[in-house]
Amino acid sequence: MLQADEKNIKQFQETFQKIQQEISNAIIGQEMLIKNVLTSMIVGGNVLLEGLPGLGKTQLVKTIAKVLDLQFSRIQFTPDLMPADVTGTNMLTRDGQGNTVFAFEKGPVFTNLLLADEINRATPKTQSALLEAMQEKTVTAGKTTYALPRPFFVLATQNPLEMEGTYPLPEAQMDRFLFQLHVAFPNKEQLLKIVELTTGAEQAQPQKVCDGETLLQMGEIAKQVPVAKPVAEYSMDLILQTHPDYEKAPEAVKKYVRYGASPRGAQAVMMASKVYALLDGRYHVAYKDVAEAAKPVLRHRVFLNFEGIAEGLTADDVIDMILNEGRNGKAE
Description:
This protein has 2 domains: 6-82 and 108-210, P-loop containing nucleotide triphosphate hydrolases (Rossmann fold, 3-Layer(aba) Sandwich); 225-327, Orthogonal Bundle (Helicase, Ruva Protein, domain 3), CATH 1.10.8. It is 46% helix and 16% strand. The protein contains 15 helices and 11 strands.
């Protein structure tokens, strides 16, 4: 196991910056998005990308696969997609002696980086086919369990506008995503760069910077970053305060939230905070790292009640209220 010494931490920062820069050469104006996707991948998490069509979500995932030299698969989720189209299925075939036998034909989920495009267009039965893969990194067919390649990540996309003909992801599956990230619309300057980059004679070709093994090693370094007890307690308070039945929850949570984050949310905050600390050149997690991780980790784990929705609030608004009430200078 790699030790989190000064040399390895510096190497961690340099490698992360090289990866981020190479991706940014092809994906314009999404620096924070790229940072958070890479953060999630380093700690072995899955990401749900939400944004309008044409903002480069698919291109981002393809570019990441090239820069990290990962095997890449893409599934276009549609209402007629079946679970076997995702995981694979047992098929009749002939062995070397000409006998008819059942053999498992692996599906596109057997890869390093899986793009689940418009995941909310598939039926719940097909969506659930990804649950085991996302959490246990395995696929079970019949009585046999198959291990997925390492590393393995799911980057899923969904369009927030077109709700007709879609199947919203159930809470259990949303919880499998470490982050939910919003893909922002570019400003005028960024839009001009995108158009010049994609309509010119020469288009940017991302180059390999590292491989999957390097990513796994970076994850091992991140795990060793220490967390002081007061910071850990601050993280746990953040999770508990998303629950309306928690006695110390803010009044806004008690009024507008139906239910809050699971223990997976606490794990996700802690893992992401460790990466943020390393990127900031520190060997320990600070309050501000926890605050930075709060929205991407919790926005899909905090569910508003009818009153909150009627007031026009979002999960981000509630998370801001929690952070502001519990900050007291800690997250600065």
